[in-house]
Amino acid sequence: MILRSTQRLATCCHANIHLSSNHARDPKNDWNEFTERIKRNARSFKERATRATNFEQQNFRKVKQEAFSRSSPGESFHDRLMHVLPSPAAFNGFFDRALGRLPSGPDIMRRVDRKYHPYLELSRVDKPIGSWLLFLPGAWGICIAAPTFSLPSIPLLVAFGTGAVLMRGAGCTINDMYDIDIDKRVARTRNRPLASGRLNLKQATAWLTIQAGLSSLILFNLNVGTIALGISSLFLVGAYPYMKRITDYPQLFLGLTFNYGALMGYCACTGTLGITPLALYAAGIGWTLVYDTVYGHQDKLDDKIVGVRSTALKFEDRTKELCGKVTAGMGISLCVAGVSAGMGPSYFLASFMGCSMIMKGLSHVDLDNPQSCWEFFVMNKNIGLLILIGIIIGKFA
């Protein structure tokens, strides 16, 4: 029995040894199997990546096709571009959020004693959009005159910003002094301080003197060329209120006045003028002609009654068409300024986007709705800021 048990144990051991020898692994085979596994995983990863890339490309083509094919196949590039651009409301919303910390007109009025409110209203401090539109061309001139790879002069920007508020206030004061009788007969303006009787002409003259005096202190701290330009602009400021009585194009004259800062800003930096500031000035004139023509549609019914002339009445039903052509001219002038100044691609992209948003706004505005006209007018502050950002970045890229 012991012998049989010993023989059975020996047989089992022999079988185990034989089984182990059959399952012994060759190191070379292990390495080959490992490399094969790596290759299989790599091929699988590549296939998954290719499928994902193809999926993304298909989605991108689908989105692009949907964006550019929302209307007929014969649609022009202009119409297709209008589909791609953000709505004026979305465009304004972005800038409003970015500038949300800046005080608004009502914020400023709340912080000032009520007895001074008529003076601030006379200068339109409660509606700072006009100061922005006067400041921006000057800021364009300052920033485009900066050396390549350099930021613009901050002291000059502050000086021009302060000057824009003061000179806009002085211009509005002069305008209301001239138009006091007309303003009493127009619904939108009859509550202005002079028209409503809250201020008299003597008080308005004193307030005008203060604003002009403070503006001159800023001007006479600049170089001789800029001082000469500033003094020459006073003719435009004083003559503008008469233009609505003698010509159908007072908005064009306002463009000559409002955008003089483009020349002054450039000259304040360089002491000279040239193609670049003149092209910026031309672009600004076209820009003002467009936004102020749409703005003028708010008062067109009253203007007909009181005999005031404007491009809104002159263009009538062709306003959108003619303003679109002027906007195209604005874009060409901005390109000339950019090429002359050696600007980078960012400038040209911002200029193109700015002009395109004006076109988009023109396609959306209801010229018979005063609120719609006002919203288009306000949008132009953000368009001017977009171009300004393009100029600053364009000095670097």
Topology at a glance:
Elements: H1 2-23, H2 27-68, H3 77-84, H4 88-98, H5 105-110, H6 117-122, H7 129-144, H8 154-178, H9 180-183, H10 193-196, H11 201-219, H12 224-246, H13 250-258, H14 260-270, H15 275-296, H16 300-306, H17 311-315, H18 319-341, H19 345-364, H20 370-394
Helix pairs in contact: 7-8, 7-14, 7-15, 7-20, 8-11, 8-12, 12-13, 12-14, 13-15, 14-15, 15-18, 15-20, 18-19, 19-20
Descriptive account of the structure:
- With 397 residues, this protein is mostly helical.
- Helix content is 78%, strand content 0%.
- The chain contains 20 helices and no strands.
- The chain has helices at 2-23, 27-68, 77-84, 88-98, 105-110, 117-122, 129-144, 154-178, 180-183, 193-196, 201-219, 224-246, 250-258, 260-270, 275-296, 300-306, 311-315, 319-341, 345-364, 370-394.
Assign the structural class, choosing from mainly alpha, mainly beta, alpha/beta, alpha+beta, or little secondary structure. Answer: mainly alpha
Strand residue percentage: under 5%
Total beta strand runs = 0
Number of helices: 20
Element-by-element helix/strand order: HHHHHHHHHHHHHHHHHHHH
Tell me which oligomeric state these chains represent.
single chain
Radius of gyration, taken over Cα atoms and rounded to an integer in Å: 35 Å
